[in-house]
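Summary for the steering committee. The consortium agreed at its last meeting that each partner would contribute one worked example illustrating the joint modelling workflow. Our contribution is presented below. We chose a case with several input lines so that the handling of multiple components could be demonstrated. No manual editing was applied between input and output; the record is shown as generated.
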Amino acid sequence: MHKLPVGVLGASGYAGRELCALIAAHPQLSLRFASANERRGETASFGGKSLTFVAPEDAPLGEAALVFTALPHGASAAWVGRASVAGARVVDLSSDLRPGSAAVPGHQPAPYGMPELSRDLLAAAPVVSNPGCYPTAILLALAPLVRAGLVPEGATISVAASSGVTGAGSSPRPELLFAEVAEDFRAYAPGNTHRHLAEMRAVLAGLGAPSVDLIFTPHLLPVARGILATITVPVTSIPADPMGPWRDAYDGEPFIELVDEPPTLRSVTRRNVVRIAAMPVKHVKSPTMLVYAAIDNLVKGAAGQALQNANLMLDLPETLGLPA
Amino acid sequence: MHKLPVGVLGASGYAGRELCALIAAHPQLSLRFASANERRGETASFGGKSLTFVAPEDAPLGEAALVFTALPHGASAAWVGRASVAGARVVDLSSDLRPGSAAVPGHQPAPYGMPELSRDLLAAAPVVSNPGCYPTAILLALAPLVRAGLVPEGATISVAASSGVTGAGSSPRPELLFAEVAEDFRAYAPGNTHRHLAEMRAVLAGLGAPSVDLIFTPHLLPVARGILATITVPVTSIPADPMGPWRDAYDGEPFIELVDEPPTLRSVTRRNVVRIAAMPVKHVKSPTMLVYAAIDNLVKGAAGQALQNANLMLDLPETLGLPA
Amino acid sequence: MHKLPVGVLGASGYAGRELCALIAAHPQLSLRFASANERRGETASFGGKSLTFVAPEDAPLGEAALVFTALPHGASAAWVGRASVAGARVVDLSSDLRPGSAAVPGHQPAPYGMPELSRDLLAAAPVVSNPGCYPTAILLALAPLVRAGLVPEGATISVAASSGVTGAGSSPRPELLFAEVAEDFRAYAPGNTHRHLAEMRAVLAGLGAPSVDLIFTPHLLPVARGILATITVPVTSIPADPMGPWRDAYDGEPFIELVDEPPTLRSVTRRNVVRIAAMPVKHVKSPTMLVYAAIDNLVKGAAGQALQNANLMLDLPETLGLPA
Amino acid sequence: MHKLPVGVLGASGYAGRELCALIAAHPQLSLRFASANERRGETASFGGKSLTFVAPEDAPLGEAALVFTALPHGASAAWVGRASVAGARVVDLSSDLRPGSAAVPGHQPAPYGMPELSRDLLAAAPVVSNPGCYPTAILLALAPLVRAGLVPEGATISVAASSGVTGAGSSPRPELLFAEVAEDFRAYAPGNTHRHLAEMRAVLAGLGAPSVDLIFTPHLLPVARGILATITVPVTSIPADPMGPWRDAYDGEPFIELVDEPPTLRSVTRRNVVRIAAMPVKHVKSPTMLVYAAIDNLVKGAAGQALQNANLMLDLPETLGLPA
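What follows is the complete predicted structure of the assembly.
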């Protein structure tokens, strides 16, 4: 059977490698090229198939039906342009074209590739901007409450989220050495300064909550992969069926799993799903809900969602080649 | 030199073992007995000194100047009584006599053994109730703000805290096996139901914040020891010197470390300190602060603080024998 | 398409669960039943398919084309008999019927299910005995040298092997708690006393090395899964092409990967392969080789190999449903 | 009381930092300077005492009674010379002056600082060469057997040893990132090529075993600290009391712990001890012993042993300031 050729720019990072492995196992896509500038000329194996990395300038962009760019923030937008000019559709995994991004003057945000929230915009889009890992977990957890009008004006939403170290990239930095990370745990981006904040605020505004205060504290976990977000949200009132808003919003969604207990990291790793639990907060006077969401930062938080978007853009079944 | 004899009831759990090791290294205390019912007759070594565990009924309570009870919640209060009758002072590491405890009808709460908040009550107390591990981190983080009157009436304080597995005890339970905990992370006590909540609410009320809504979500970390709490607190206004309230409250305290960046677990493990950082939350309309606090759950959160209390009760230097 | 019904006895341990997950993803098998005595009546999900555990006595053995037993050693043989009487083929993951086993008087060893060494015996066998995890790595590493006649009479082969904790089972034992295993490493079965020794000696004798002294020291790693064996073997002489014996023996084998550097655990986990590297020992007078072999103890070392055997017995492609 | 001033060259690596922390806690030493070229001007805290790193050229070598050099191999010898010229005694933690070292032409090996084997040579030595981490564990395990004449001529000794990642240094290398090391295990220096081999062969020759074949395979463990060595040794005959040779050789040694079961890493970490167990190998025809030895690579394997040597050189009690 004929497979559609796709390419990956920025294949040596954790997200890029995960993407190459998923493509290698995909029944209808073939990996036409993968660029990795510092490793160009090296051969890697994905799912038993060998591939030699090229420099991005040597990537035959025009031979791919779709190009994924997993290049660094700031460097990606220009390659989105080149791939588009060469005639390829593009899924951009960087933050360059995401809502709220100020990184790349002159570039318009592309449709936000979170199918559960905006599937209709994606099939025909020439370029799709793949969401950040934290925003994927947090926005999918919050969207049903916001859309149901249950979050009051001016509410303060407090998010504590923790990520495995692959979220920090594969560049060797002293603080990411095993001997530093093991047996440790730390908060970062202190005082609400994480670069994903603008992305989440912009999307929340689009969902109908322009006035909320969002406080987001990320933490670094001594695990390789996975994100767990614990979210405190004031509500106008507790729904009679507390998980009703999520059930309504995500009916039939293949990659949303609603559960009764806070999800564990292990229940989602190596899978393209988000697991969500929501419940009323006891022992408080103001009606408040706790929402818990877990994803694999490299799959639903990056490469898996990118492939989900690509399936939609290429008119393939949305779940094809994705570990459920 | 003459050393003061002390005893430990419940020496086989993680806190009990830590306590025995600290006592073995203490220059002015000697370990007269250690009870461990299921391991009675077994010999253990602490700091190079051998000791044979006894059943609690066989412990010579009257020969100890002070008895630590690290027995399970519910079982401890009765032994506090027996040790008192035998003439010993007592530090109770269980929750039985803590503020807010409803566990043991007929027992009055004992003075709360958190020297930084209530040192004056401890020196003469026959019995001191040693705080819980989470409350130690969280209350020491919050007290200066509350006492300074900066937390508004009815405010919602949101706490996400994470603990190493020694906090869950040493009983073999399937969910605590290495193969389950490694590469995992999970929230527990969902919906604000942790048993430490009553203790924290009672102490906060005593500090002058009876009306706040406290939302507390604990998480289980794949590390052996340590607690990190990330706390979001609405304030009436941001202090000109954001860390001023903590500097004022903890001036000269030997076991409080104020830092500029969120503290890491590694910076406090095996030490009897709490590290605290506090800063304003950016990008929000309502004035809010983020407070981060880290402790070792077995040291400042249990055995170390118990020894700190014992030092005060026995008129020894407060810092003696404690790893700083 | 019609799928062949199979059943699993002993589905709640780590190997049993891995087996159920592999069967759920297998294109030509369906899981007819899974027994888990202590969890009977509970529902579990494997690959998105729900299944209710039954007691072994309630398992409809006769409705399965093939039954896997992952029951404890000693208890398994009787169930092999019952399943056979009910008309099912059997793959026994216990040690009961393995070469060298003295566990079950009255039972004959069944053909040893290591296809790379004895494929011809398996297709028609009513019962196949699935190898132990350590023997899988070690025997596949040693067999080519032995069969080539390169191991001298009376040689001493020294094996240091290390396993992830899933190899120790899922029963909650204090020494397997996260807080005990993390940051630890230990040898066990001291002085050459591991129960897999008889299995390995018996197979080596069958391969033509009845006189060797085999010294085997297993270690417990702070990882969930994987086995790495480091093997020192005296040889009559170093082959001109040091890896020649392995290349010859394993030509075309789908699950053997020969590599130039010692294999890492990560390169084999979640895959049904064994990776082997072999090289001469430098700086010694007696010709000696170092052979390194790595497997996933739950896949090629247990459930994956069991499925590989089942594929052969059921006349399905040997690699079907197995992660390569 | 007057403390003796000492200095540390190369204080920013793991061994250097451990050394600074031990010196800070030592009752009779004070840390006069610590050099860390890339961090010069930065302030660090050791045991509550602040210190500003200097460049090595700016270290007041002449003001120290003793200088520890923890500089890289190859770079250290020259600084040993400078410190000596400045009038300081020196403990060199690098391999430059160790037995078997060919690294530094023109420099003579200094006495080998393993007090349990060569205490008499150390007190008066102007320079002592601190042993490597693996050699410390392995030579202390083997020496009693060799000295007792129990290892036959030409015997092959096979050593599988595993080390925590601090043994690989603190330079950020991709393969030492948490996401690479966690859940992994790997052999390195394949085929008997580790640089510690020459050191061990030279010392074994000096102990009376010039003809043995030593095969040494190191492995990288997913733990921060600790070394466990599992050693297979042919013997002329099994001693009537298998641990007799060790008991005789190490009678009264403060830092040797002889145990009945293979020692765990956890039993030695953060302590200046080596734990050794030895036992006959069962189920073999040739008399052979298994010897297990565990140390903390940063303490007895580096900084602790260096301080033990310094205590001897400075005529202080050998155990002073060392965690037992």
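Residues 133-147 of chain C form the longest helix (15 residues). Chain C has two domains: 4-131+301-313, 133-297.
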